[in-house]
Amino acid sequence: MKAIILCAGYATRLYPLTIDFPKPLLKVQGKPMMEYITEKIVAVSVVNEIIIVTNSKFFSHFYEWSKKTKCSKKITVLDDGTTSNDDRKGAIGDIQFVIDLLHIDEDILVIGGDNLFFYDLAALVKFQKEKNTAVVSLYDVKSMDLAKLYGIVSIDKHNKIIEFVEKPPIPKSTLAAICTYLYPKKILPLIKQYLDDGNQPDKPGSLVEWMYRKINVYGYVLSGKWFDIGSKQELDAVQKVNLEG
Q1: What are phi and psi of 104, to 5 degrees?
Q2: Are residues 137 and 222 in contact, defined by beta-carbon separation less than 8 angstroms?
Q3: What is the pLDDT of residues 50-97, one digit of tens each?
Q4: What is the C-alpha to C-alpha distance for residues 14 and 92, in angstroms, rounded to an integer?
Q5: Which of 33, 22, 48, 29 shows the shortest CA–CA distance to 105?
Q6: d(Cα 240, Cα 8) in Å, to the nearest integer?
Q7: Can you say how many angstroms the Cα of residue 208 is from the centroid of all Cα atoms in its chain?
Q8: Do the strands 134-140 and 175-183 form a parallel or antiparallel pair, or are they unpaired?
Q9: Which of 4, 31, 90, 192 has a Cα-to-Cα distance from 115 of 20 to 30 A?
Q10: Burial grade of 137 (CB within 10 A; 0-12, 13-18, 19 or more)
Q11: How far apart are alpha carbons 184 and 51 in whole angstroms?
Q12: Under a CB-based contact definition with an 8 Å cutoff, are residues 181 and 135 in contact?
């Protein structure tokens, strides 16, 4: 299994912090957010490589970090060739870029590089192996008002996704799809089909919204903390909380 960390965004909502510095390498309580992610991936024995896909603007930052950080798994940093929000490939476009460039023919674990989370990825992998299909991670935001800000999922008693609505005005649940996905190699061609059909390449949840209508897709409800670092206010707030407790 390959782990793909999506880091090709430009984080304009965090300007000026991210004008010349990538959001995933911003420090939270003294440590880059990226290191929290890689530490969780290291605990997944079936992952044999961590692939960071970024852009031309921030490639050197991630490459230099990868050479300095201590990690027991191989880290590969890729430049997707884009330089701004105007020419970015988008999250789904970057997934396909990695698959094509490295000729990936195995399961992939996809994680957003700005996800600050403390759940067990090994448990997520175990669940995916049981279902043998695509799995999206779900986090209960426990608030109907907050649910209006996310892609909200409804699941049946077996955790199969039966509805996915992006930023619903009247949410049917508080289960938010977050940017942690497991795609087995047998469904990787669907990612290319999604893009070839002209669907928008940016929001990774849009792929799930399209895919669950074609195949069985399951949701794994996470136990553990997750923080959405989308603004300076949220970044400042997380500096003061007990992250794992």
Answers
A1: -70, 130
A2: yes
A3: 999 999 999 999 999 999 998 899 999 999 999 888 888 999 999 999
A4: 22
A5: 48
A6: 27
A7: 12
A8: antiparallel
A9: 192
A10: buried
A11: 16
A12: yes
pTM: 0.94
- Please report the pLDDT score of residue 245 as a whole number: 58
Residues 6, 10, 12, 15, Cα dihedral to 10°: 110
Report the alpha-carbon distance of residue 242 to residue 72 in Å, rounded. 26
Task: Report which residue type is found at 196.
Answer: D
The full set of domains in the chain, from first to last, is 2-238 (3.90.550.10)
Among 188, 207, 182, CA closest to 96: 188
Over residues 162-179, mean pLDDT: 91
State the pairing for strand pair 134-140/74-79.
unpaired
DSSP strand pairing (2-6 vs 108-112): parallel
Give CA–CA dist 28/60, Å, rounded: 21
Classify strands 74-79 and 217-221 as parallel, antiparallel or unpaired. unpaired
**Residues whose CB falls within 8 Å of the CB of residue 85, separated by 6 or more in sequence, listed in order:** 10, 12
